[in-house]
From TrEMBL:
Source organism, top-level taxon: Bacteria
Annotated NCBIfam families: Glu-decarb-GAD
GO molecular function terms attached to this record: aromatic-L-amino-acid decarboxylase activity; glutamate decarboxylase activity; pyridoxal phosphate binding
Assigned EC number: 4.1.1.15
Family assignment from sequence similarity: Belongs to the group II decarboxylase family.
A single Gene Ontology CC term: cytosol
N6-(pyridoxal phosphate)lysine modifications at: K276
Protein name, as recorded: Glutamate decarboxylase
Gene3D superfamilies, per database record: 3.90.1150.160, 4.10.280.50, Type I PLP-dependent aspartate aminotransferase-like (Major domain) (3.40.640.10)
Cofactor: pyridoxal 5'-phosphate
Enzyme class: lyase
UniProt keyword annotations, A-Z: Decarboxylase, Lyase, Pyridoxal phosphate
Amino acid sequence: MANRPDPRDPADVTLNPLFARPGEARSLPRFRIGEQPMLPETAYQIVHDEAMLDGNARLNLATFVGTWMDDEARRLYAEAFDKNMIDKDEYPQTAAIEERCWRMVADLWHAPDPETTIGCSTIGSSEACMLGGLALKRRWQESRRAQGKPVERPNLVMSSAVQVVWEKFCDYWDVEPRYVPITEEHRTLDGHGLREHVDENTIGVVSILGVTYTGMYEPVAQVSAALDEIQKETGLDIRIHVDGASGAMVAPFLQPELAWDFRVPRVASINTSGHKYGLVYPGLGWVVWRERSLLPESLVFTVSYFGGAMPTFALNFSRPGAQVLLQYFQFLRLGREGYREVQQASQDVAKFLAAGIGRLDAFELWNDASDISVFAWRQTPGHSRNWTLYDLSDRLRQKGWLVPAYPMPDDLADMTVQRIVVRNGLSRDMARSLLDDIEESVRYFDKLTEPLPDAPRSSYHH
């Protein structure tokens, strides 16, 4: 049955008479391409007016993705809009800068020898995760075939709090996901219960440096130690992929002594989002392998393109090169000390907010932003039956703030939390205003004499 047209969403886009130029149509089809061209100024005004209805990115405390860069970076971005990252024959200098960047990242993550490692840029962490997972699967398959063993039932072990990209990876590439539930006692994948989830078909274990639900680091060295014990008992040699979408660009600067990266021998590969705490506009990720042998040659293709032969192992082909240049700009612009200062400033604001929220009787902190500048809290059990964290999220949205509320995974699915992500650009003064709005909202809710109506809620996707 065809969907009925929504009377609130008319079929045509109408133009204000002041915007339409002489001879141009005053009404345009919404869901098909119009018959005639229009002046660029008119097209700009239409798109501009629709886009201005989006939220204020500075007040969006749900997303990890960067929303601010220097004016010089914006100018550089505009100059590089047309660069195609895959066209290394046309843009050899951009290709050279890409290699410099992933080698810098490999050095940042203590690769044993950045000159003999391998890596690449990607559209974001999702593509980088796919590549890391594919390398684990292919190495497992090649090892099993060499031993004359079947390769039909690979599995990947991870926390129940993984980001949805890992569910997608397992679904897309026919890998069984095995989730280790998080609990009140074990709030991250910490090695507890790992033995019950791994076997000879396990292609690897995913450790998250900055769990999306809460921002907490999973203790990679502790997970590695558990796998050491499993190898002693069973002979299974299982590698780790670190999903460092956020934390891999924070820990090197705020927790430099923490061993989570290639200092842990079992870590085969690491990914991060350049467009999160790498401080670049959306559309950039990085993935690096400890050494070339951990990226199977069967995943690397040599293609003839624009007059040259080049190896490629990314999932996407043509893609923008501008963000790679922006990452190099940030590495030059900030250096290690600059990154440390920026990440420390964000963490200081996050801890300020966490302390303020933790002081309210209505809430209990789940974590306090001691890892990345992200923290979550729940409503104190028994505090009130008249309102929930969803109500608080809705009220804050009315004030412009996006502070999501959502259920925790699996064994904790009956627990609702709220989370704040502090990114570069949220000042202490803005945080103080947010805290004032939260306190005012709690006072308002606590005066209610009966429960608020239960309205349909839009789900929040990590």
